[in-house]
Specification:
- It contains four helices and three strands; from the N terminus they run αβββααα.
- The chain is of the alpha+beta class and 149 residues long.
């Protein structure tokens, strides 16, 4: 058994000590919450359409380079990299966390009606459709209303 250590009780506010057990995180960081949100959407889509598992999906903070000449020069929220058979690279989709959060705000995995959920789902559906050749309705899993929040 550990010895009981008492700390000062200042001004009747109770004993001071840690609020959370050291091994338990108090809350997820914004990065962890974003990653959970993307992972849950991807898991649901790939669960229905296993052929999309060959597409690599990554998350980065911000784009490392300026947009290419054929890309829009607006805020880049994601980029699509088609398959490169010579270099043996699978098709890839990279989502950029900070531009997405700047546009849609922050949200947790439990906040299902947030603009963040809708924007991530929209980006995944549109870009996976572009990479795979499937229609957005097939990837979304039903009829699509307005995709953009």
């Amino acid at each position: 058994m550990y010895p009981v250590t008492r700390r000062r009780d200042r001004h009747g506010r109770g004993l001071r000590g840690p609020l959370f057990h050291p091994e338990v995180p108090a809350r997820l960081t914004y990065r962890q919450s974003f990653e959970q949100l993307v992972a849950s959407n991807v898991q649901e889509i790939v669960g229905r359409l296993p052929e999309l598992a060959r597409i690599e999906i990554g998350i980065d903070e911000v784009p490392h380079t300026n947009p290419a000449s054929w890309e829009s020069h607006d805020a880049v929220m994601c980029r699509v990299f088609p398959e490169n058979r010579l270099a043996r690279l699978a098709p890839r989709l990279v989502l950029y966390r900070l531009p997405i959060q700047a546009r849609a705000g922050r949200a947790s995995i439990r906040d299902l009606r947030s603009p963040m959920h809708a924007l991530i789902r929209t980006l995944l559906v549109e870009n996976l459709s572009q990479l795979s050749g499937l229609s957005p309705e097939e990837i979304h899993g039903g009829p699509i209303g307005p995709l953009h929040p």
